[in-house]
Amino acid sequence: MEKQFPILIAEDDPVSRLLLEKTLVKAGYEVASVTNGREALESFSKKFYPIVLTDWMMPEMDGLQLCNAIRKNISTGYVFIFLLTARGSTDDMVAGLEAGADDYLTKPFNRAELIARLKTATRILDLEKSLKDANEEIRILSITDPLTKCYNRTYMDEQLPKELKRAIRYNHPISLVMIDIDHFKRVNDTYGHQAGDEILKELVRSINRSIRSDVDWVARYGGEEFLVVFPETDFKRAEALAERLRRAISQKIVQFKEEEIRITASFGVSGFTSSTSLKEISHETMIGLADKSLYQAKEEGRNRVIGRAIDG
Q1: In what order do the strands lie in the sheet with 103-106?
Q2: Catalytic residue annotation
Q3: Quick one: which H or E segment has residue 261?
Q4: First CA to last CA distance, the chain
Q5: At residue 238, what are phi and psi to the nearest 5 degrees?
Q6: In terms of pTM, does the model score above 0.70?
Q7: Contact criterion met (CB below 8 Å) for 85 and 107
Q8: What's the CA gap between 103 and 109, in Å, rounded?
Q9: Which of 6, 87, 202, 255 has the most CB atoms lying inside 10 A of its own CB?
Q10: Total H helices, total E strands in the chain
């Protein structure tokens, strides 16, 4: 059975409006109706309607104005617009289509023709949604690390400058945590690369359990290194979060075939608070400070957190 999208009717004539409502409800459609274009736009602020049936001549905002307004202002998804009018000349049809209508029906409408055209609109909307879903899937694949399913370096390079710019603009804190698995080459040499892959995936799962899913995010920086971005989090708080995660990882046992593998990780933290007055700081600087801190953690014996706050 074809999916039936909700329909919004904009028709000022009560008889025509009632006839449309009854016809569409009988055909199984979910229907809402208003008396002019302005009310139709107000309806979109409460709910998205993929299909609109609008009369041409209406008070306050007519059908052509409504078509233009929908095309300019509605971005939630594509809206298939039918223009209903007693006007039947070629010039009128062209004017309606140029205003943004997708199809044109003359009054009085034929019920069978209306339902048939609605089925055509539904197929077009289904195709549009399928294309949008496919594009979104491609986009997600392009920014996702295929092994660990966290973000990849491409996403990090695009998103981190935006996060930093937003933090500086609104004078909000932001922190970075660089994570590197200790002696990862030894793990690969001892247990094999498949074991190493399982450890990388388990590390990301551990990180995701410890961060805010709707605010913080993690990206694979390269090899066994990962970068965690903590918006709205000052340096001291990020250090505490890194230490909590370090302890959790050091206590974890990764099961691979018959082997029980224990790992540790080293952490480098950088960040600034809302009191920091730096306006020209770059994401490269923040990453560099986190990386230096990580290197120091490695030099001092691994399995520890070292941080460098940015002074304003």
Answers
A1: 31-34, 7-10, 51-55, 80-85, 103-106
A2: 224
A3: strand 259-262
A4: 63
A5: -65, -40
A6: yes
A7: yes
A8: 13
A9: 202
A10: 10, 12
pLDDT tens digits, the chain, 312 residues: what are they?
456 799 999 999 999 999 999 999 999 999 999 999 999 999 999 999 999 999 999 998 999 999 999 999 988 889 999 999 887 677 878 888 888 999 988 888 889 999 999 999 999 999 999 999 999 999 999 999 999 999 999 999 999 999 999 998 888 899 999 999 999 999 999 999 999 999 999 999 999 999 998 999 999 999 999 999 999 999 999 999 999 999 999 999 999 988 999 999 999 999 986 555 666 688 999 999 999 999 999 999 999 999 998 875
Domains of the chain and any CATH numbers: 7-141 (3.40.50.2300), 153-309 (3.30.70.270)
Query: How far is 100 from 80, CA to CA, in rounded Å?
Result: 9
174-181 and 225-231 strand pairing: antiparallel
Instruction: Determine the Cα–Cα distance for residues 288 and 292; give it in Å rounded to an integer.
Output: 6
59 burial class (0-12, 13-18, 19+ CB within 10 angstroms)?
exposed
Burial class for 249, CB neighbours closer than 10 Å (0-12, 13-18, 19+) = buried
Between CA 311 and CA 42 the distance in angstroms is 49
Are the C-beta atoms of residues 206 and 245 closer than 8 Å to each other? yes
Residues in the chain: 312
- The SS3 assignment for 176 reads strand
Contact between 9 and 32 under an 8 Å Cβ cutoff? The reply is yes
* φ/ψ bin of 123: left (φ > 0), alpha (ψ from -120 to 50), beta (otherwise): alpha
| CB neighbour burial string for 190-222, b if at least 16 within 10 angstroms, e if fewer | ebeeebbebbbbbbbebbbebbeeeebbbbbbe
